[in-house]
Design brief:
Keywords: Signal
Mean pLDDT: 81
Low-confidence stretches: 1-22
Number of strands: 9
Number of helices: 1
Helix content: 10-25%
Distance between the termini: 42 Å
Largest sheet: 7 strands, mixed
Shape: globular
Oligomer: single chain
Amino acid sequence: MKTYCKVVAVAVLALVGTGASAQFVNGNEAVNVMPDGTRRVETPPLPAATLAAPCAADKPACTASGWRMVETAEGLRECTEIYARPGTCRPSTFGADKRPRLWIVKLRGQWMQCQFPDISSKCVSTKALPYSAVQ
């Protein structure tokens, strides 16, 4: 009986730990886990038109409208734009700091911005006005 309780306790702790540290959006088509366990991550493509110089992630003025939460090959990142260009992202502080955030995901082949890390929340095209929320 003691062994059974220990096994159950370890399993429960493992599940709780996984849920607390998991930072992703279920259903995001941009993230694919391959059979060997590696992740392939797609980020929104750069537009054909020339973009302004990247706004660095370390400049507070760049995030006046909130952070874009983007899955990258490095994991979940807070970015100043949806494209995740070099220098525009930093490690995620989701769960540690509350700030305005939008979640950039790919749904049914289209890039969308969601209000919360949930595809059933308010999600609109990246070309539309967003529904950001402090999280």
